[in-house]
Each structure stands twice: as structure tokens, then as C-alpha cells.
Design goal:
By secondary structure, the protein is an alpha/beta fold. Helix content is 25%, strand content 24%.
Length: 630
């Protein structure tokens, strides 16, 4: 049972005026008549009622459900069925008395609500009606629950209420007088970064914190609206105050700032993790305020920090001796009934990009990133400040671009490569081709890079799926396709250091896996000096985060050039909900000099690679079950 902090029961009083005026005695005939309290009301008697449960025509789901709950409670407790409708239908029905839930067009509800804060509620009788109303929808719901517990469930044959009943629950807020620079908090509104889902989520958290501590529900608006004097600015959006703070950060942003700046409270963050940390620190600051001293100003609110202090430094730190850090991520092209956790593409993209920026790899290889899909646009947009996406040329290994191959025109490849703008890498040449099944998201992209100290290497991002023959046995056609694509680079630039990253739909013992290892490539998850995620696997159900499933997102490399110092599958809230594949992080070290002069020539003996595959599945046609874009 909720504790009633203040219950006002207006009792019937007989008032007699005995006041004197000007030293004389007042004529007894002028005595004011006694106040007669309104007659009691009977909500039901003998199994019947004349009352209707009424809500606003545009009531929220919370209010609608509260009405349903009350109606069910009457039926269950006393077997009386109350009509239930909105106020428009109530007026059409010619109803005369009602149990009114929440604010409606009835001026009594407006008057009552104006006397309450967010969590307050009242049980009030006036003009024969019963009003159950709170300072918010949530509080109105509590009013209904209290009424059911205190009156409905304890009733028997009838329920009679005082005609002047006015029972109130008044919530005591720790920071009832909360203000910013002396201006009451109720004068403020919250502005969020309209381009980021988690900025709006952070704004909601701050709004709820203010409601819980001060009892005031603030308006929330996107930063595309015009500025006003009193704002709480959340996120690194369009407001000049937040942009000025963001400009002071090192990139990528792993910092947060919470401070009072003039008449505004500014909460600046870049990404999901930094927003969470900013909120935690603001909440702690609020906990230190008191009812007597709860003005927030520049002298008592200036919080800032680095998210790296919150995250396991060992997981973030590059292994000693690392020359290159690679991250591979299958972003999940589209959700289906089997892998949909209810998160939008925008949410998933923000979670994944947050992880990319926290670990800051030199090179990111992507899968399932077809142009034109929302997920692809979100990821590219959020990374564009820090990473450059390679524009690879279509090489027509499968199909003939000179004959107007539709695939070449579409350039709809889903395996892009991106490199960090500030890491000193220089792209030399890039290429792309589809696998011989010609499905748009099956293929490989490669880029040859030079490092700042002159070493040269090639990284390939590949993606394919099940590759079996007519009898269901695993075959290595797609692995061979991938190596043919790699060999385009090796024939021109020599037998250089190679990193193959991808969602290979291959695991230890399978023919596609064995094809790579038979050529001398080794699996970083097996050969890295530090293996942080043994047995975890990379594939999982979105939102569930199982471990122990297959390891199909694999980074291969040639050990005569590279040493894998560290390998880890990134498993946390952000990656579990971001995709159905955990990102894979590998730290590599050159084992010898790899300048162009150090790299021997390469000849794979295949001759002309500009071929058109005519084997099974290699007709040059698009997969019939794939929706194409571009």
C-alpha cells in the first residue's frame, strides 16, 4: 500500500460568524448560513451502476489501459459491469455521472492537474462525478491502482463515497526547487541531436532524472528547432554550444562533458558509451544536491572525462609491437523474423560504430554493406569523419564488363574496406569482384596499402555462404574465387603480406577453410600469441549473445610476413545487439621489412584472369532470391 504523505479530507463543518465590526456587535440575523456538504454518491448498489468510466478522446495507452484495469476490477470484485468509453461517446450516450480517469475537457480535471506535480494524484468527488487524476499519466495510473486497492477490492454490496471527497497523494521530491543559474527547472526544455537515436535516448534519461528528483516533466525537442534561452542541450548536434565543446576533443571522440554554459546546461558526448558515462556522472552530481541547495551552475557542475577510464584498458590497448590493427565486422544486411531484436537500423549502426571508434583499428573490413540500404548509409555517415571508404574498381573476373555486364554497372558490392584517416596509410590500388554465383553480397574487395615507414601489404574483405556440391558435400569454389581476386593484386605487386578477413561460412575442417590453409595462410584465432576469445565463436542470435557457436568470421594471414599478436571477438551489449556477428579484432606485426623492393614477384600460373565462369552457379546471372539495388 502506498504511503499517503498528505490526505486532505474535507469534513462537513457548521460555520458560525461571530466577528465584530468597528467595535459594534453584529446583528444575529446577519449570521452566515451553515455550509451543507454535498450528498454522498453511490457508485454501485445491488449489482447495478449508473456510472460510466470515461477517459479523454485522445488518451494515451497508459490511460486507456488504466480504464480497462478499473472496469475489470469492478467486474472481478463485485460483479458489476461498468460502461467504458471516451468523453465524446459518453456525451453522445447522454451519460449524467462518470468516473473520470486522467485529464479531459472537463475543467475540473484541468483545475485538479494544475495543483499537482508529476507523481502526485488525487481521488476527488465533485458534482456527483469521481475523478481519478494524477500529475502525469503514470501518476493517474497509480491513482486508479490505489482506488482499486482501497475501495473496489474492499467493497461488498455497494460503494458509497462522500460527496466532497478529496484524498491526495503528494510526492516529496528531493530537489523540488531545482534550478539552473537561479532559473526554475520548469523554464527549461531538453534539446537532443536529431541525427542520433541514442542522443534522444540520453535526453529521455535526463528528463526522467529531473522528473524523479524535481517532479517536473520537461519538453523534448530536436536540435533542428530554433534555439531559446533556457535549454538543456544533449549530444554533439547542431547547437553552437555543443559544437564548441566537441571541437576541443581529440579524435575519435571518447570524451564527454557536462557543464553549465551561460543559461544552458550542455551535455556533450560522441557515441553510446560516452553518453552513458555522462549520465552516470550527472546522476551522481544530482545525488549530492539537497533540497536547500539545488541550484545547478557553472561553479558546481563542470564534469568531463574519457570513456577509456570506464572500459577495460587491456581490451582496448594494442598488443606491444603492433604495427597494424584490423577489425572485421559483418553488419547484418537486413533483419528477419529470426534475427530481429526490435532495434532499428539506426540503433544497430550507432552501437556498432561506437565499438569501431572505441577500438580505433587502422583498417576495417565490412560484410553485407550494400549501397542503398539504410544500415550502410548510417555506418558510412557516422564513420566519415574518421575513416575513408575505398572505392574499389570492378574487375570483371566473372562476367564481361565490355559486353555491358549489369553487375559492373551496379557496383553493388557489399564488402567495402575503410582505413583510419590519421594512421598514415596510403592506398595504392583497389579491386572488387563478385563470386562466381554472382549474388550481390557475395564477393571480395582488396586494397594494397603503403604504411608510413614504407611497408606494403594487401587486405581483402570477403563474404560468401554455403558452398556445397549437388550431393551436399562441402566444396571450395568460393575460396578459389577469392584467391583469384587476391591474385590480381599479387600478380601486379608481388607476393606481398596478405590479410584475408571475411565471413567465410567456413570453419576448421571444412573444405573452404582447408583451401586457405593449404595455401599457407594461418587463422589468427588459432595462431595469435594472445587469444582472448577462445571458443566464443562469431555467429549468434541478435540480442541473445550466445557463445560457443561457429567461428566463421576469420582473419587469415601469411606467417612469412606477419605475426598475429592478439585476437579477440568483441562480445558486449553493443555488439550483441548490433549484428548477428561479433566483430573480430586482430593486432598484427611485420616480421620483416616489406617495402616494394623486399617483395618478390608472384606468378600463380593461371594466365589470363579475365574469364567468364561457366560452371555450376556461374552463369553470370544474379541470384533469383536477391533483391538488387543500384
Amino acid at each position: 500500500m502506498r504511503k499517503l504523505l498528505s490526505i486532505l479530507l474535507l469534513l462537513a463543518l457548521m460555520l458560525t460568524a461571530l466577528a465584530s465590526c468597528g467595535g459594534g456587535t453584529k446583528d444575529p440575523t446577519e449570521t452566515e448560513p451553515p455550509v451543507i456538504p454535498p450528498a454522498p454518491i453511490t457508485l454501485f448498489a445491488e449489482g447495478a451502476t449508473g456510472y460510466t468510466i470515461v477517459r479523454a478522446e485522445n488518451a494515451s495507452n497508459t490511460i486507456v489501459q488504466a480504464g480497462v484495469t478499473l472496469r475489470s476490477a469492478f467486474l472481478s470484485a463485485v460483479n458489476v459491469e461498468f460502461p467504458l468509453c471516451d468523453e465524446y461517446m459518453y456525451e453522445l450516450s447522454g451519460g449524467t455521472v462518470a468516473i473520470v480517469i486522467g485529464e479531459t475537457t472537463d475543467p475540473v480535471t484541468t483545475r485538479l492537474k494544475s495543483t499537482m506535480q508529476y507523481d502526485d494524484f488525487v481521488l476527488h468527488v465533485e458534482n456527483g462525478n469521481l475523478y481519478l487524476i494524477g500529475g502525469s499519466d503514470r501518476a493517474t495510473e497509480e491513482a486508479v491502482k490505489y482506488f482499486i486497492e482501497a475501495y473496489v477490492e474492499t467493497s461488498t454490496e455497494n460503494l458509497v463515497l462522500n460527496g466532497d471527497m478529496d484524498m491526495r497523494y503528494i510526492h516529496e521530491y528531493a530537489l523540488k526547487g531545482l534550478s539552473i543559474n537561479g532559473t526554475p527547472i520548469a523554464s527549461y526544455r531538453i534539446v537532443y541531436d536529431n541525427a542520433r537515436y541514442y542522443s534522444k535516448a540520453l535526453a529521455r534519461d535526463i528528463r526522467d532524472l529531473i522528473v524523479q528528483t524535481a517532479g517536473v516533466m520537461l519538453e523534448m525537442v530536436p536540435d533542428t528547432t530554433d534555439a531559446v534561452e533556457h535549454e538543456i542541450i544533449v549530444g554533439a548536434g547542431l547547437r553552437p554550444e555543443s559544437l564548441a565543446v566537441e571541437a576541443t576533443y581529440e579524435k575519435p571522440h571518447l570524451n564527454y562533458t557536462v557543464k553549465v554554459q551561460g543559461s544552458k546546461l550542455v551535455v556533450v558526448n560522441q557515441g553510446v558509451r560516452t553518453g552513458e558515462e555522462a549520465f552516470d556522472q550527472l546522476e551522481k552530481m544530482f545525488e549530492g544536491l539537497t533540497a536547500e541547495s539545488c541550484d545547478v551552475n557553472a561553479s558546481n557542475l563542470n564534469l568531463n572525462g574519457d570513456i577509456l577510464k570506464k572500459v577495460n584498458d587491456k581490451a582496448l590497448a594494442r598488443a606491444d609491437g603492433t604495427n597494424l590493427r584490423f577489425l572485421h565486422s559483418n553488419v547484418l544486411l537486413a533483419t528477419t523474423a529470426d534475427n530481429d531484436n526490435g532495434y532499428t537500423d539506426q540503433q544497430r549502426a550507432e552501437l556498432l560504430v561506437d565499438t569501431y571508434l572505441v577500438y580505433s583499428p587502422d583498417v576495417i573490413t565490412f560484410n553485407e554493406m550494400i549501397e542503398g540500404r539504410p544500415m550502410t548509409g548510417y555506418v558510412r555517415n557516422m564513420l566519415s569523419e574518421y575513416y575513408t571508404f575505398i572505392k574499389a574498381d570492378y574487375l570483371a573476373l566473372f562476367g564481361d564488363a565490355d559486353e555491358g555486364d549489369a553487375n559492373a554497372k551496379a557496383r553493388n558490392y557489399a564488402t567495402p574496406i575503410a582505413y583510419r584517416k590519421d594512421c598514415g596509410l596510403t592506398p595504392v590500388k583497389s579491386g572488387f569482384n563478385y563470386l562466381s554465383d554472382m549474388i550481390s553480397y557475395h564477393g571480395a574487395s582488396w586494397t594494397v596499402f603503403d604504411t608510413p615507414n614504407g611497408n606494403r601489404f594487401v587486405v581483402l574483405s570477403g563474404h560468401f555462404s554455403e558452398n556445397k556440391d549437388a550431393d551436399g558435400a562441402w566444396i571450395s569454389t568460393f575460396s578459389a574465387d577469392t584467391i583469384k581476386m587476391l591474385n590480381v593484386a599479387r600478380r601486379e605487386f608481388g607476393d606481398l603480406p596478405v590479410v584475408l578477413s571475411g565471413d567465410w561460412f567456413a570453419w576448421q575442417g571444412s573444405a573452404p577453410y582447408q583451401y586457405f590453409t593449404d595455401l599457407g595462410f594461418v587463422d589468427a584465432s588459432e595462431k595469435a600469441l594472445k587469444q582472448h576469445s577462445v571458443g566464443i565463436g562469431t555467429y549468434h542470435t541478435v540480442g541473445q549473445g550466445e557463445t560457443g557457436r561457429v567461428e566463421e568470421d576469420i582473419t587469415f594471414y601469411n606467417p612469412e610476413w606477419f605475426k598475429a599478436l592478439s585476437h579477440k571477438n568483441l562480445v558486449d551489449f553493443y555488439t550483441v545487439n548490433g549484428s548477428d556477428h561479433y566483430p573480430v579484432l586482430v593486432d598484427m606485426q611485420f616480421v620483416k621489412s616489406a617495402t616494394p623492393d623486399d617483395i618478390p614477384p608472384y606468378d600463380d600460373g593461371t594466365g589470363d584472369l579475365n574469364i567468364k565462369d561457366e560452371g555450376a552457379g556461374g552463369s553470370g546471372e544474379w541470384g533469383t532470391d536477391v533483391v538488387q539495388n543500384g
